[in-house]
Amino acid sequence: MTKPESEWTWKELTVGNVVLEPGNASQYRTGDWKTLIPILDKERCVHCGLCYIFCPDMAYSLNPEGYFIVDAYYCKGCGICAKECPTGAIKMVVEEEK
Amino acid sequence: MGKRVGMEVSIAAAEAVKQVDVDVISAYPITPQTHIVEHLSELVANGELDADFVPVESEHTALSVCMGSEATGARSFTCTSSQGLALMSELTYITSALRLPIVMILANRTLSGPLSIWNDHSDVMSIRDCGWIQIFTENGQDVYDQVFCAYKMAEKREVLFPVIINMDGFTLSHVIEPIELIDQEKIDAFLPPYDPLYRLHPDRPITMGAFALPSIFAETKQAHEVALRASAPHIVDTWKAFGEMSGRHYTPIETYKAEDAETLLVTMGSFGETASVAVDMMRQEGRSVGLMKIRLWRPFPFEDFKKAALRAKNLVVIDRAVSVGGPGGPVASELKAALFGENQRPMVYDFVAGISGRDVSPSDYVKMVDKAEIEIEEGNKEGFEIYGVRG
Question: How many CA atoms lie within 13 A of B16 on its CB side?
């Protein structure tokens, strides 16, 4: 997709609204649904990866330092990661106040 | 010229589906559509038609199967009536949005309740706005012919819309009529194999039926609206080509003794034949009455309709469904809307007649014209009634 769909005119749509480019759901920004965002206390993190495993949106990925970091573009703020974190290293905070 | 045979219209319809060489048939039996799918099932089982016949547990699935098969590029057919159409209705909107050129024969039957199996147009009117091409047929030959035309127009790159062929249940579906069959070589020349614009194939992944956010949905509807309207000339071209091939000519609006008529009866479907007898009777009495038959219901042929209607003083519209608590019958209310912008327009009197299979004989049309002409003369501008109701 060369531009956001909110800029497409009706004449630019494919017949039947067929999507010709595979995998473009990754461009869908679900991150703007959230009010809460997880923040990580690296002191308490034991690198277990449960946040990464439980995240329903696959918003977590491993960074070069060995921490699992959330991608705010996708995170919907559900809080499952914070709930599952065995050491309490993840806290949900109101996004504007982070 | 092809062979002329006596044949039940449902069987003729099934034979036409065989002649277009469909790849997939999926349907669930429901009266009065049953004979069509039963015969197709036999043709597949006997090896006379090389197609997959997919028996399903519901009409919802029947159309879903056809959408899947059509999406892979397989020419697909389904057929239903009444409650069956109601059950598949949610898919009808999706089929047209996906621009899948499926053809469906709808053996028109009353939507219950009360429970009824007989003929009227309440089933198709319940999905009036589903975005398909919708054609009404007058007799058995018409049904047989429209199967070829439907696939031809539907599969054109400029069209790519599903088509509903409406045939009146029992009045057409269960009646034996003389049908002129078309030679297979002629059909093969008329209808080339389906060449889809997009198709589902593992080697080239695409997505059909993606979710649309509010930011894009209105644009998809605009595209649908413009494309369905733009299909009209291609529908007309298809009928022209068919006429050249078969000698039988079809147009969006057909008229009979209408040129100089003060009053026009307006019908859709098989009622046109009876109404033409009534017109002859009234003409013999020296009355200025003609007939307009609407063949193409969607996209609605506004210009053709106005051309025929604006010459007349009165339109007596025979509706086959009631918009309960609304503006009367759906056909009359649309015709009134189509005429609203005209300075000199005919008066429209609306009869809902023959609902759920009640007979409407030529003399009934005469009575309706009598009543309408008197009412209009007396200044009744909102004439609407369910014809022949006791009490």
Answer: 31
For residue A22, CA distances in Å to A18, B69, B97, B206 come to 11, 21, 20, 6
Residues from chain A that touch B162, judged by Cβ atoms under 8 A, are: none
CB contact under 8 A, B98 and A13: no
B71: Cβ contacts below 8 Å, ≥ 6 apart: B98, B100, B199, B200, B208
Q: Of the candidates A6, A8, A22, which has its C-beta nearest B205's C-beta?
A: A22
| Single-letter residue type at A52 | Y
Q: Which of A5, A11, A16 sits opposite B198 (nearest CB)?
A: A16
Residues of chain A contacting B226 with CB distance shorter than 8 Å:
10
Chain B residues lying within 8 Å of A26, measured CB to CB: none
ipTM of the complex: 0.90
> pLDDT digits over A51-79, tens only?
999 999 999 999 999 999 999 999 999 99
Q: What residue in B sits closest to A18 (Cα-Cα)?
A: B208
Question: How far does A1 lie from chain B, in Å, by closest CA?
Answer: 13
- pTM (predicted TM-score): 0.93
Architecture, CATH, for domain B253-386: 3-Layer(aba) Sandwich (3.40)
pLDDT below 50 — which residues of chain B? none
Q: What is the pLDDT of residues B239-250, one digit of tens each?
A: 999 999 999 999
Here the tokens at position B337 are: 């809307």
A6, A14, A16 ranked by CB distance to B215: nearest? A6
pLDDT tens-digit map of B35-92: 999 999 999 999 999 999 999 999 999 999 999 999 999 999 999 999 999 999 999 9
Which of these CATH numbers, 3.40.50.970, 3.30.1330.60, 3.30.460.10, 3.40.960.10, describes B4-245?
3.40.50.970
Determine the Cα–Cα distance for residues A39 and B316; give it in Å rounded to an integer: 73
